[in-house]
């Protein structure tokens, strides 16, 4: 049993000594500023907020069954986004006409 512990200790020591960088490396992940340039090569200002358009469709027609959980799931997504600083607009079961009235154009 002592021999197994000794071998384990040697292997562990070798791993630490041979590859110390990942074990002790400073965290390098995070936000990175990305410059956005216009057509003239001028830097465009950074965004001042986070926005999300949430569209949920659960009421179908023409024989498709309704999805009753869509409303609840959309509320959950909105809650998480709001807690993380997003300004949200939620649209539930829109028609193409109601989207057009809100200023969203039909994609063709």
Biggest sheet, strands in spatial order? 1-2
Spans where pLDDT lies below 50 across 5 or more residues: none
CA-CA gap between termini: 72 Å
Question: Sheet bearing the most strands, described?
Answer: 2 strands, parallel
Helix content: 25-40%
Oligomer: single chain
Q: What is the 3D form?
A: flat
Q: Report the total helices.
A: 4
**Strand count:** 2
Average pLDDT works out at 80
Task: Please state the CA-atom Rg, rounded to the nearest Å.
Answer: 26 Å
Q: From the helix content, strand content and strand pairing, which structural class follows?
A: alpha+beta
- The percentage of residues in β strands lies in 5-15%
H and E string: HHEHEH
Model description:
By secondary structure, the protein is an alpha+beta fold. 39% of the residues lie in helices and 13% in strands. It is built from four helices and two strands, in the order ααβαβα. The protein has helices spanning 2-18, 20-24, 70-83, 96-101; strands spanning 50-56, 86-92. A two-stranded parallel ribbon has the order 1-2. The radius of gyration is 26 Å and the shape is flat.
Short description:
This protein has a domain at 50-101. Helix content is 39%, strand content 13%. The chain has helices at residues 2-18, 20-24, 70-83, 96-101, and strands at residues 50-56, 86-92.
List the helices and strands and how they pair.
Blueprint: H1 2-18, H2 20-24, E1 50-56, H3 70-83, E2 86-92, H4 96-101
Parallel strand pairs: 1-2
